[in-house]
């Protein structure tokens, strides 16, 4: 039987290795995302996230009800008014040739957390106005780090992106840091996005959704 | 003879290794700082920094005149009025049991850049109001990344600190990210600090120095 210290060290080395592998790979490499997610999803930090998110009525209720988006009819959403959340979401997915994620079965708080964050990721993009290019992803990563409180995964993605700038193209540092500051500031001002039942809001104008969440888009 | 690609790869691996070593060491470990500085001080990025800093009259003049602080009489500065830059600087060094750095001989732009940044580091701490604890250092690292434009060293320090939070204590993420956003925002608003002849300003009230540089201290 190995000591806890030894197990910690093995865990730490695996986490560092998955980040370095990602630094040496292309932005958005799916295998690297999966490897990183697996390496840093320990129950300690997940428990801290669940406790933090449960401290608001919205978050607490989400863990009790575990609402998922269910099947999404993209074509139907795309026929909603152009200013609606549903239209923006459908248009985003159709334009980027993406399919809505199908949530796996959810049996505990950690499952629900993972499924909810994964299936609402594109909605967070829309609502926060974060682009799907590298800068938009970095902005959204900073937003997640703020709103999820103890997320090793999203903070690791920011660290990975800064390391890529250090190693391969230091002149990216200004735009990367700008994106971090923007996402962070926006998330601090905003109300929590975790646990929102987005499929009750498809017909709501995107601007009203943003206003109700106090999401203030940065200039430029 | 090795190909340029092979040399690049060796350089990249050395830089990554020095950052990972630092992640596994104590905050502020001097050997790690020296190893990192050595690993990421390539002439390409230094040249970009020099070009960027030379784009202002203050920076251009600094590279021409190469002004250094020279010998500093801490006791004399400590007798200046309590609100002066000189008193604050002397008091900071005396309280933290630090000695002013002695600049090495300066023979080219890169030497001057390195010597000037090193010997004015504590002055930047004073003027930006950044503490010398980890959070203050992170805030100042973000300030440097902004003001030096292409600094692998200071961006690597930020990445290193975020990695430490990912691996060892994810609950630090909020204060670390706050420090980054504060330092970054402050640096964007501020005038360039590089190239200032600080020893002409010892008697100036610190508040006047900050106002003239448009340094706005963040709340809290």
From TrEMBL, chains A, B:
GO terms for biological process: ubiquinone biosynthetic process. Pfam families: Coq4. It comes from the Bacteria. InterPro entries: Coq4. This is Ubiquinone biosynthesis protein. It comes from Dendronalium phyllosphericum CENA369.
């Amino acid at each position: 039987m190995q000591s806890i210290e030894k197990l910690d060290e093995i865990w730490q080395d695996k986490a560092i290795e998955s980040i370095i592998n990602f630094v040496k790979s292309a932005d958005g490499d799916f295998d690297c995302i999966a490897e990183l997610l697996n390496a840093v999803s320990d129950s300690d930090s997940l428990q801290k996230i669940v406790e933090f998110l449960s401290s608001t009525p919205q978050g607490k209720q989400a863990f009790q009800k575990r609402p998922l988006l269910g099947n999404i009819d993209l074509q139907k959403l795309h026929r909603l008014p152009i200013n609606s959340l549903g239209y923006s979401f459908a248009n985003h997915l159709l334009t980027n040739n993406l399919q809505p994620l199908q949530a796996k079965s959810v049996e505990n708080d950690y499952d629900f957390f993972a499924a909810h964050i994964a299936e609402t990721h594109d909605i967070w993009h829309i609502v926060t106005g974060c682009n799907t290019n590298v800068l938009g992803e970095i902005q959204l990563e900073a937003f997640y780090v703020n709103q999820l409180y103890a997320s090793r995964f999203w903070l690791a993605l920011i660290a990975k992106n800064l390391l890529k700038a250090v190693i391969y193209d230091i002149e990216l540092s200004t735009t990367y840091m700008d994106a971090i500051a923007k996402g962070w500031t926006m998330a601090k001002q905003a109300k929590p996005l975790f646990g929102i039942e987005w499929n009750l809001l498809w017909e709501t104008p995107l601007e009203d959704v943003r206003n109700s969440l106090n999401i203030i888009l940065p200039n430029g």
